[in-house]
Amino acid sequence: MLDYTIKAPNFVKTAVRRLHLDVPRQNVSKPLVTDAHAIVPIWFTLVALLRSLDHLEELIIIRLPLCQHYTHRDYVFPQTLIDSCSGYLPQVKSFAFEMNCQDCSIGIPDLFLSTAVNIQHLKLSSPHSQHRLSSEPQQLDSCNLSNAVKGPKSLYVKTYNSVNGNETLTTIADQAPSVTRLYITPYQPNRRSIKACFHLFCHQAQGSSFWSFRLSCDGSEEDFEEAGDMDAWNSDNTFDNFLSALSRFDRLETLDCFLSIKLPLRPTRSSNSFSSPTTSKNDSSDVKIPQRFAELCAREAEIQSSMLAAAQIISANVPTLKVGYFWNLRPAFKNPEKSIWDRWSWYCDRNDTSADVQIDPVPTSHKTKSMNNQDGQKEWKGDTYSGNDSEGENEDDDDSDHDSD
């Protein structure tokens, strides 16, 4: 960093609009590594570099040599440097903090957001350790989003499925009520694989066009059988609290909080449902294929109908909302890592008197293994980290065991 700051031609530094910082800790002798003030000159070198980039607009941080988190009172760690410099990032509009170290994911954003006054796009990761879960309310409070001029337009937050999602939404609404695009992505504690926090259970009585909904917001209920007696759904106010939290945003246009749609499992047919003792094997297959296709079409229509009803309720509570997303899992029971998430888009076209909600009939599909994320996952222990680095490295692409739902 120092070499680039001093030797790079001015015309090169002036042209920099986007900067990735992926700088590991230096491999120096033990006394220097553990020096109480080791990160101070590194910090001022980094500030000098950023000051020299007059037209920098986007900053992405993956690793920094500021990663020192000794708790002894004599040691300088990132949070203690906050007031040492100011005004060096007035032009940066976009920040992405993608550090694996959980302590860096707490302290590093403070350093930069405390001096940024023009934030438009922000990506944060909630820190996690094996023994502690830090929720977004703590993380967002520490970043002082409310002190940023006008607040971010786009906010991407990584959370954990065991954290109360309604509390997360409420805190974000308090800190950044004018955000226009909000993305919340939940992961499993101690793992890198994605797992929904919000589960919206949907039920339609036989012969009725009315949908009933019940929401789980902390990942504790995943299967429809765990949603409880449907007669008692009206007494559960979790979905109402979800809508209330969303209504606090005054400019929200795009929302993706990884809301997973859950419908009752369809009845399982016996193996001889469509064949008689006199029906040949080939004839039986010929009958089952179109029947199965018809069932799949009916199931998809049912899913879309439930999403449309839910989207209409959500859009009615957020008058500015234009785009939303639902997620639906197609599990691979033999190997869950091969499961596929379908992401359904819905759109709200508004005029002065009404709102027309439409579901995009074609979802985008995402393999679970391609959605891994370990930002904020590793626990700092001196010069080493603990974390799950081997998960998912030996997977193949055989997706033949997916369920149809």
Automatic annotation (TrEMBL):
<feature type="region of interest" description="Disordered">
    <location>
        <begin position="356"/>
        <end position="405"/>
    </location>
</feature>
<feature type="compositionally biased region" description="Acidic residues">
    <location>
        <begin position="390"/>
        <end position="405"/>
    </location>
</feature>
<protein>
    <recommendedName>
        <fullName>HNH nuclease domain-containing protein</fullName>
    </recommendedName>
</protein>
